[in-house]
Amino acid sequence: MKPLTQALMILLAIAFAVALSLTVALLCLSYAQGLPHESVDTGGGRLPGQTDTRLPPLYETDPPAILPPIDSSPTESEEESEEETEPETLLPDVSNGLSFVSNRNGTCRVFGIGTCIDACVVIPEYAPSGERVVSVDSGAFFGCSTVTAIQIPASVVEIGELAFSACKNLMYISVNAQNAHYRDIDGILYSKDAATLILYPPMRAGSELTIYTVTTEIAEMAFYNCAYLRAIYYTGSPEQWEAISVGSKNYSLIAAAKVFYANGK
Question: Is the dihedral of CA 245, 134, 203, 232 positive or negative?
Answer without folding.
Answer: negative
